[in-house]
Amino acid sequence: MAHKRINCTINGQKLSLEVEVGESLLEMLRSRLHLTGTKKGCGVGECGACTVLVDGEAIDSCLFLAVWADGKDIRTIEGEAKEGQLTKVQEAFVEEGAVQCGFCTPGFVMSVTALAEKGCNCDREGLKKELSGHMCRCTGYHNIINAAEKAMGEK
Ligand code: FES
Ligand code: FES
């Protein structure tokens, strides 16, 4: 398969990588860089477990080609807590009991982080809509939406 060299920043670190042209960003993160915090759920853009930030936008990394990451700033869950200090969003998830098995959590945290950084003015219904692309098999969403509200400073 054809390869291409890309240059990007991942969690603040500049990297130059050789990737396959058909490789997804999700595969690149998990298999090549061993950043396994980003989860593979459906693999077809329906569950949100693979959400990462590309230039501040939350995207499904299973649908985003690694070659498209060239020149971009990528953030994954591994880059969020600094020196053991959770972010405000991560703290909200813990405080609201929004984590059970944790499989969906990195994706939710990245999406909520993007919303918080953009200064989203969503009310509870708006947050539900914004996060509707994420699936959770454990928590029933109530606590997750509570956490999102808390992280937005609306609670
Ligand atoms: S693994 Fe990407 S949306 Fe489900
Ligand atoms: S906490 Fe288990 S899938 Fe969401």
Any ligands, ions or cofactors bound here, and which?
FE2/S2 (inorganic) cluster
Rounded mean pLDDT score: 96
Main beta sheet: strand number and arrangement? Answer: 5 strands, mixed
Architecture (CATH level 2) name of the largest domain? Roll
Low-confidence sequence ranges: none
CATH homolog superfamily of the largest domain: Beta-grasp domain
Task: Give the count of structural domains.
Answer: 2
Proportion in β-strands = 15-25%
Head-to-tail CA distance between termini:
51 Å
Reading off the top of the CATH hierarchy, the class of the largest domain is best stated as Alpha Beta
Would you report the number of β strands? 5
Description:
This protein is of the alpha+beta class and 155 residues long. Helix content is 30%, strand content 17%. The protein has five helices and five strands, in the order ββαβββαααα. Strands 2-1-5-3-4 form a five-stranded mixed β-sheet, with helices on one face. It starts with a strand and ends with a helix. Residues 40-43, 45-50, 60, 62 line the site of one FE2/S2 (inorganic) cluster.
Protein traits:
DNA polymerase, domain 1, 2 iron, 2 sulfur cluster binding, 5 helices, oxidoreductase, metal-binding, iron, 155 residues, alpha+beta, 30% helix, Ubiquitin-like (UB roll), globular, 5-stranded mixed β-sheet, 2Fe-2S-bd, binds FE2/S2 (inorganic) cluster, 2 domains
